[in-house]
Design the sequence.
């Protein structure tokens, strides 16, 4: 589009087709205002988010497309106080006013704050588009309804009480600029889908579901084959209504890759968030058992446990993949746990130096144009060297846990409990009887130190978790977690009554 | 700067202008509805004794719903200029042509009359950031004086919404809200205390009391002893368990549908299915869906403008009725109770009274990370946090390490002996729930945390 003259009126119309151009114009207004009012540092993000949700609940269709455009402005005053203000009125006058509001909050915070230094980051001027083969937002809604209708109709059966399916297509355009000279435009496409079938039988209501979310286009939906999966899940859920539960006790467990992805999220990803460690999240999300004195010392897990924090494209197309984080730091790959030892945190420019790191590893992320906070990127368990079949054969007596149903963990991330939709007994190296509602629990370091086998890359998947909640007011973020089936010895297990 | 200083055209005036534009562009639609929602908020967020994440937010959402025959489509945009509205409407028109028919579609509602609710409080809007920062500053000062770290948030918000449709409906709501949530801690979170206050009118906020409560609990909650898990009689503080009580509204078994919803009940998805008239809880329990309770928040109508009415879900422990609606405008959100009021029958006590009447047991000041384990028995798991105390002979004796519970919600509500008056709390979805403190028997703890 051609550049428009900036008109400070409330009917000033921004061209939504060029977030980058609009961002450049508004960044100039913001950064000049912040500089004139003596801000130590300022940054602005203009974020344009389009989300299409297409759903079928039994026979009832629903579709919705939302478009949310707004700007978040962050200002540091006298190296001491942060202020943040956001607005969805993205004309020059409002951006100027919003910048001043952020400055006013920063001045207030500076009165009771302490001096801080931002870790150095090179200036980046860049433009990045996430890879996609088929833009999901340009695939007709009708085509998505056809897939979902096909899937939900294949879940009809005697005893089935609920059938749901959904496709979500997201495009996020971000323009970031800061007072140090960085100018970054990113165009991010994410796609996801979920199917759920619930049935009622002698054991009450059972559920089977499958979901995946990734930094991909509609090719993800094609690959998921929802109509093909629907009858398989339906057969399983009906079997679960007649299946046995699991008695409480201790057992070796093999945890499927999807369930282990969530285990990594809750018991590795959250405790390594440095803002939790420093007390900034103590009121809601909580703290962490990983105090800085344990860095480089704590044996978090067994030698088989290697956890990376990796936002680079080389790691895969996960919900935690990007080129630059929301304070302009380039994506990186770092170890959080190496050969079982705790070696690194998820950090920001304002926190990395508190643990002796001169540079942030790029983990500041924001839900739309809200305040960036420390978030997981892709936090993944690296593949081991076991073939899945060999691992089953090597297990004499155990339980295979598959597909998450519920999850809970204490505020310092020690005591966890997970419940799964289904499980199987493993007897003499073979998968046997189906189990409904199996669960397991433990204490985080004890659990990861009980890991004696991790499957290889052939059964490794980068899972998307689209709904991680954190912050006040609460923000929702997508994160990625790679995992492969792994074995843990002598774990407390239990089941549904 | 207070929220009132933001210049704005009244939402009702702007909404009618927008509706005219939408009607102009919605060619081919038989029925047209717009929902315009505006939310502004100021959040003084602090941690580690620093006011580090102060935020001011402003957001408007225009949702356009079009229907033709039994087809409907919806688009949403945050931009109210004509070109953006045109684009959003054209997308909805396009989707309308290709959407499958909805067999349960009902025509849009005509004009409705609503019971008046008065939930907009000027002082909440006009209170200066300096005054609010003063509340936070004194909490931080108190924490510093006691070698503790304060973290939390003091937030205020203004919510306003307008629904208009071509059948003649006009529904408008405006309300204020806020909360002061405070944690004081030390020793890397091993020593913590928590307090919360919610308000519609900031005049109701007793900030010093919130600070003193968090401080008192943090000072008490150190050098915790470990107790063996098992069944304990408990006193649950009224502000402790909104997340747990949220599970009266949702079920994880079929995509977080609502157990107390008519549709879920009829389809057999609810653990309550077939149990109308059956005693499901203690005779002293009353559950209501009542938006008109003086402590409740939010509009007296649902997402398509249908008037809400008071509903008794459980009375004398017996399942009496279920939440229903016209077919919801947002189809994928099944009907559910939206304004839950939980209370005890008969005279109530204070939390201090309940502790005084507990011979031996635990005082729980905050429950956390609650999830459903089994839908049939409505068994939930979760953790205690920020202060769990052993009580003997009616007195708090000493803190104990945090415990995990696995507890049936229905069994718990059959074991409640005494109630406090309900207080306003908000669940993690933002839904306001009025919840009492209770003294209950045999709460089931299953494991212990190292802190």
Sequence:
């Amino acid at each position: 589009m051609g550049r428009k003259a900036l008109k400070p009126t409330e009917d000033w119309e921004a061209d939504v087709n060029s977030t980058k151009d609009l961002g450049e114009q508004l960044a100039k207004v913001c950064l000049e205002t912040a500089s004139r009012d003596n801000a130590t540092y300022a940054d602005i993000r203009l974020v344009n988010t389009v989300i299409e949700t297409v759903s079928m609940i039994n026979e009832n269709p629903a579709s919705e497309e939302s478009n949310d455009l707004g700007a978040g402005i962050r200002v540091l005053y006298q190296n001491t106080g942060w202020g943040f203000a956001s607005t969805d009125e993205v004309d020059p006058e409002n951006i100027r006013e919003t910048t001043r509001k952020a400055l006013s909050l920063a001045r207030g915070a500076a009165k009771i704050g302490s001096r801080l230094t931002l870790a150095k980051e090179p200036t980046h001027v860049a433009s990045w588009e996430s890879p996609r083969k088929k833009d999901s937002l340009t695939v007709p809604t009708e085509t998505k309804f056809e897939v979902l209708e096909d899937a939900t109709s294949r879940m009809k059966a005697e005893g089935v009480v609920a059938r749901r399916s959904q496709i979500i297509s997201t495009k996020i355009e971000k323009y970031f600029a800061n007072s140090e000279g960085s100018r970054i435009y990113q165009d991010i496409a994410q796609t996801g889908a979920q199917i759920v079938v619930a049935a009622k039988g002698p054991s009450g209501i059972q559920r089977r579901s499958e979901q995946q979310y990734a930094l991909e286009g509609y090719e993800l939906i094609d690959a998921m084959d929802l109509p093909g999966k629907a009858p398989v899940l339906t057969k399983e859920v009906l079997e679960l209504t007649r299946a046995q539960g699991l008695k409480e006790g201790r057992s070796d467990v093999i945890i499927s890759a999807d369930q282990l992805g969530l285990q990594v999220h809750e018991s590795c990803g959250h405790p390594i968030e440095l803002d939790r460690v420093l007390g900034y999240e103590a009121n809601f999300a909580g703290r962490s058992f990983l105090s800085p004195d344990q860095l480089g010392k704590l044996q978090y897990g067994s030698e088989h446990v290697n956890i990376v924090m990796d936002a680079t494209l080389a790691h895969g197309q996960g919900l935690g993949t990007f080129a630059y984080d929301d304070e302009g730091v380039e994506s990186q790959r770092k170890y959080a746990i190496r050969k079982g030892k705790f070696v690194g945190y998820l950090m920001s420019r304002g926190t990395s130096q508190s643990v002796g790191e001169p540079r942030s590893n790029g983990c500041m992320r924001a839900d739309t144009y809200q305040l960036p906070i420390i978030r997981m990127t892709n936090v993944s368990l690296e593949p081991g060297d076991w073939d899945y079949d060999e691992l089953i054969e090597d297990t004499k007596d155990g339980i295979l846990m598959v597909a998450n149903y519920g999850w809970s963990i204490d505020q310092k991330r020690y005591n966890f409990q997970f419940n799964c939709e289904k499980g199987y007994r493993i007897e003499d190296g073979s998968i046997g009887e189906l189990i409904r509602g199996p669960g397991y629990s433990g204490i985080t370091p004890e659990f990861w130190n009980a890991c004696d086998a991790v499957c290889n890359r052939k059964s490794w998947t980068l899972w998307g978790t689209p709904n991680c909640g954190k912050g006040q007011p609460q923000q929702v973020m997508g994160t990625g977690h790679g995992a492969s089936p792994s074995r843990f010895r002598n774990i407390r297990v239990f089941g549904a009554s | 700067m207070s929220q009132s200083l933001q210049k704005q055209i009244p939402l009702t005036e702007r909404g009618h202008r927008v509706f005219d534009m939408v009607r102009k562009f919605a060619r081919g639609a038989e029925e047209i509805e717009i929902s315009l929602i505006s939310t502004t908020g100021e959040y003084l967020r602090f941690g580690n004794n620093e006011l580090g994440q102060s935020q001011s937010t402003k957001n408007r959402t225009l949702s356009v719903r079009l229907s033709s025959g039994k087809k409907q489509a919806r688009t949403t945009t945050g931009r109210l200029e004509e070109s953006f509205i045109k684009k959003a409407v054209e997308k909805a028109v396009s989707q309308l042509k290709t959407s499958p028919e909805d067999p349960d579609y009902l025509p849009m509602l005509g004009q409705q009359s609503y019971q008046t609710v008065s939930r907009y409080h000027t002082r909440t809007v006009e209170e200066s950031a300096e005054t609010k920062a003063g509340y936070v500053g004194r909490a931080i000062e108190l924490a510093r004086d006691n070698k503790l770290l304060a973290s939390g948030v003091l937030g205020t918000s203004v919510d306003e919404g307008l629904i208009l449709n071509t059948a003649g409906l006009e529904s408008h709501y405006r309300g204020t809200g806020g909360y002061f949530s405070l944690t004081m801690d030390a020793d890397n979170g091993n020593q913590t205390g928590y307090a919360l206050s919610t308000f519609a009118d900031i005049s109701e906020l007793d900030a010093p009391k919130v600070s003193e409560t968090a401080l008192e609990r943090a000072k008490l909650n150190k050098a915790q002893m470990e107790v063996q898990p098992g069944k304990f009689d408990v006193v649950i503080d009224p502000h402790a368990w909104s997340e747990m009580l949220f599970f009266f509204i949702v079920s994880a078994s079929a995509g977080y549908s609502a157990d107390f919803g008519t549709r879920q009940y009829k389809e057999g998805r609810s653990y309550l299915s077939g149990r109308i008239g059956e005693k499901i809880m203690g005779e002293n329990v009353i559950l209501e869906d009542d938006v008109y309770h003086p402590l409740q928040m939010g509009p007296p109508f649902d997402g398509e403008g249908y008037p809400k009415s008071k509903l008794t879900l459980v009375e004398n422990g017996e399942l009496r009725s279920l939440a229903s609606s016209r077919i919801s405008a947002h189809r994928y959100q099944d009907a559910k109770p939206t304004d839950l009021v939980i209370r005890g029958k008969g005279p109530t006590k204070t939390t201090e009274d309940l502790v005084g009447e507990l011979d031996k047991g635990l005082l729980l000041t905050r429950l956390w990370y609650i999830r459903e384990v089994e839908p049939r028995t409505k068994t939930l798991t979760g953790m205690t946090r920020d202060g769990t105390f052993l009580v003997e002979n009616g007195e708090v004796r000493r803190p104990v390490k945090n415990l995990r519970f696995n507890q049936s919600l229905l069994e718990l509500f059959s074991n409640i002996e005494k109630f406090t008056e309900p207080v306003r709390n908000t669940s993690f979805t933002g839904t306001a729930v009025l919840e009492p403190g209770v003294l209950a028997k045999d709460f089931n703890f299953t494991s212990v945390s190292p802190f």
